[in-house]
Amino acid sequence: MNDPARLDALALAGDLPGVLLDARRLAASAPGLHGRRRAGQGEAFWQYRDHRAEDGARLVDWRRSARGDRYFVREREREAAQTAWIWMDPDVGFNWTSDVARTTKLRRAQTIALALATLLNRGGERVGMLGRAPRTGPRAVDRIAHDFLTPQKDADAPARSCVIFFSDFYAPVETWRARLSAAADAGASGALVMVADPAEEDFPFRGRTLFLEPGRRSETLIGRPENVRELYAERLETHRRAIRQAGANFGFPALLHRTDHGAAPALALLIALVSERFA
Predict the structure, then answer these.
(1) Is 40 part of a structural domain of the chain?
(2) Among 155, 166, 197, 207, which residue's Cβ finds the most Cβ atoms within 10 Å?
(3) Domain of 56?
(4) pTM, to two decimals
């Protein structure tokens, strides 16, 4: 691990308890996600339901039906757990905030991801970082949090899987088209969680301003950035529109979240997208 990556990992390691606490609080306030508690092939009893004509006599639970004047069918819970895979943008620019009093894009993405993992794990599903072992059981979310300490690389999506990409999506559109196309070719679908800092959205700069690219030596000096605000907004919207279109084409609907807004609405929408994928 190179020195900047090592320092980032050490900083995150010290902050893990806070990220986990934020994620558990967020999950506690989220709408329910019922996981795999659906009728299907399995051994565990789930519920009784009324007998239907198409069920035939073979499916009648005669012991339960003998207690009244209705016929019942004993349904079993589907046991095949599904897996949600998380991809977290490793670019150094994702671990950035315009205000030290506000969370970075990376930490907010990790909080939402761990809250989702908490809910999925509670529903009996597996969760994992893409390219690593899936996690399950009571320590699953803690293990995923520790997986964050190692920067993530691109990895092939498992066949017919659910993959959630967390990023600011500032990489070229061609990069994302190739990444999503490869995932779709494997039968994967999922969601894109676009996390943005308010300064990136509003471009509030005025007067002579030096812009530094995080983690790199590239810099740009603009004498009057307020004069290019409209052009900046137009280019950002064009780029976002292309990312959203690529996501829609390959089965990865996108949602946008600002770090100066509460995370609960973004998590609720993400839950809805993942639940639809798991249905």
Answers:
(1) no
(2) 166
(3) 45-76
(4) 0.79
pLDDT, residue 56, reads 75
Same domain, 228 and 110: yes
Contact 165, 252 (CB under 8 A): yes
Same domain, 137 and 70: no
Q: What are phi and psi of 210, to 5 degrees?
A: -100, 120
Burial of 54 (0-12, 13-18, 19+ CB in 10 A): exposed
pLDDT digits 0-9 by tens, 203-234: 999 999 988 888 777 888 889 999 999 999 99
Q: Which residue has the tokens 């329910």?
A: 32
50 exposure class (CB count in 10 Å sphere: 0-12, 13-18, 19+)? exposed
Confidence of residue 71 (pLDDT cuts 50, 70, 90): confident
- The whole-angstrom separation of Cα 10 and Cα 266 is 28
Domain end, chosen from 56, 76, 96, is at 76
163/130 Cα distance (integer angstroms): 8
Q: What is the CATH number of the domain that holds 196?
A: 3.40.50
